[in-house]
């Protein structure tokens, strides 16, 4: 039986240990909290201090940075990037290759399309069609 963790060295020489999440085999850094019912697909990363709530899905190639929060039943699609300290509300959908900046806030149920950029600190809400609303 193989090991259930991997050590990755950062550019600054620091080594971080990641464990493979039981549901999807994505990599969860020591110090991150990911609910057992969340799905973190192989090739996705959740960094130290980040939290992923029950039922959330983090797909292949997505990256959730330190101290970010992904709410219950939220979806972070392939190759999306959730910045440091950002918060994704429950039921929100973050599209493919979308970048959510540091400390940005995405409202509950928001639908953010593919290849979008949400600026650092920006707060975003959408209507049910995914059209951005003034926040």
TrEMBL record:
It comes from Microbacterium limosum. Keywords: Transferase. This is Transferase. The lineage of its organism: Bacteria, Bacillati, Actinomycetota, Actinomycetes, Micrococcales. GO terms for molecular function: transferase activity.
């Amino acid at each position: 039986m193989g090991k259930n963790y991997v050590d990755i060295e950062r550019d600054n020489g620091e080594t971080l240990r990641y464990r493979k999440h039981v549901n999807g085999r994505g990599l969860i850094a020591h110090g991150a909290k990911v609910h057992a019912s969340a799905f973190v697909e192989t090739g996705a990363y959740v960094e130290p201090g980040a939290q992923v709530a029950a039922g959330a899905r983090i797909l292949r190639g997505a990256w959730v940075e330190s101290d970010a929060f992904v709410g219950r039943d939220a979806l972070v699609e392939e190759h999306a990037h959730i910045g440091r300290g950002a918060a994704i509300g429950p039921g929100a959908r973050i599209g493919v290759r979308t970048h959510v900046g540091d400390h940005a806030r995405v409202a509950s149920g928001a639908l953010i399309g593919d290849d979008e950029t949400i600026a650092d600190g920006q707060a975003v809400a959408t209507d049910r069609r995914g059209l951005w609303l003034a926040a």
